[in-house]
């Protein structure tokens, strides 16, 4: 792990010292190779579930999300290169972008592998610092505003989460804050402290997972960042928030009656996130914000799945995995649209089917998959969550979810179709289409559809291990 | 000794609620850093060089010197001087007193035998004071001060519950916070340079 961290950090910082954009691309490719090699070595040396450097553990959750992050990172780098060239950014800015992207990847990886509640916090705070530079990359007024809000709200939110960790640590014996040790003693903790701690941690981490109440900064960040980076922030970073909350959730599974309370909190947060997503999907006039609100809505469904537990918990993890593939693909498609129209405006751009047929089909299919139409993998996860809700007899939740999801489906479908079939504004100056990028963006979507039709045994086993709360 | 330092700390929080110059805010934050150093030293049970150096670096160096120096640098560069608050100073004082009363009440119901009640109450009051500063003041510099008051409150809170994290984790936490403040300072200056504003109300161009 130490070698991985050192090599990754060196490669991440290398673009700052090299002279050309090409050399920067080579460093990025090497960085990606290190990620792939580290995952391969974990399997080769059978390091799964082993503790590394006394504060990291390569458990199934960490490895699964590291694989997903690496896949998304590869596509993000590919699309970023093309995006930045078309934006005519300076070499200095180009190199800084790749450095920050790789530093963010290191911070996110450390969040995934952290086996210590305080270290998870430290690396989540580090992701805020790395993301800030990426959000500010375009250096216009709105990116400055989004960056300020992102750093300020995330820092304040994560300070609140730190308070929660302090309260949680009152149960720790000999100051040991690793998840396994805390799990053994959490049942002895003061229930009031544990409840307040859970609330503070979940609220604090909500800015990363993009759920209610601090979802706004994530939406603004996705709006201001370059589209390929938005794909990365909206998936890999959101997953870092999910993993952090999932680890706390697993910890609380041993907390007796407090766990039942914590699950109710997650259901409430989930339904509020779903409501916010449904409402703002109608109001926004920007495709990137549109996709970000879809992330809020999907993470709301995940929070509900966690709150319900049982099969719904399995479905929640599966939902996050598939959402990563679908949402990143959609953001890449939006990035390609920006090349063509130089706009993200929902009301202005249209006629996409005639301008870029491959991209338009990718976007329409992506929308259908995102809306959980079969054979979307999200259809499987949502049906599993619904069946578990019926199983526990929570009818009010089922009705509320169905109503909100109908609103979501109507809003997403009607507004996505505008892009392909609505007439274009004549004031727009269209640019050349890069079909290769449209094809590459569709690859992740195809993988998601394949997972919808056939779930590999290794994925099912990994999720089984993750949801084993014992 | 500890009690008098704690009372002084509470007074700095009350004074912060009515102070209307940013230089005063910065001075108060530096004084809070010194008080936190005194409190942490008074609570040291035994002489441990590593622990002692960490306390000196975190409170005396960072909280009392480095961070106020960053804030003063920002004040000099942006030429911001006074708050122009959304409410009156009297209103802010009333809110602060209500927060103090709320902190005492919550502490009475929450604190258990493992927790130092006085520390717990003051830490909670510091957190609420920071939040009040963020909510009531329009200028983003005041928001930065509010964030720092919250961070100081978190430090007091860790003493209230007597948690001692390993040194490596403490260092990582301290560096994270310092870098966040540095970056916030940098972006505050950029906001002033590019948008010619120090007002949070001007940061509303991103909306649906």
Model description:
The complex is a heterodimer of chains A (470) and B (208). Chain A has 470 residues and is mainly alpha-helical. In chain A, 78% of the residues lie in helices and 1% in strands. Chain A is built from 19 helices and 2 strands. In chain A, strands 1-2 form a two-stranded antiparallel ribbon. In chain A, helix 5 runs antiparallel to helix 10 and helix 8 (191-209) packs antiparallel against helix 10. The longest helix of chain A is centred in the last third of the chain and has 31 residues, at 311-341. Chain A is globular, with a radius of gyration of 21 Å. Chain B is mainly alpha-helical and 208 residues long. Chain B has one domain (2-202). Chain B is 77% helix and 0% strand. Chain B has 7 helices and no strands. Chain B has helices at 2-18, 22-42, 49-78, 89-110, 117-136, 140-160, 167-195. In chain B, helix 1 (2-18) runs antiparallel to helix 4 (89-110), helix 1 packs parallel to helix 5 and helix 5 (117-136) packs antiparallel against helix 6 (140-160). Chains A and B meet through helix 5, helix 6, helix 8 and helix 9 of A and helix 6 and helix 7 of B.
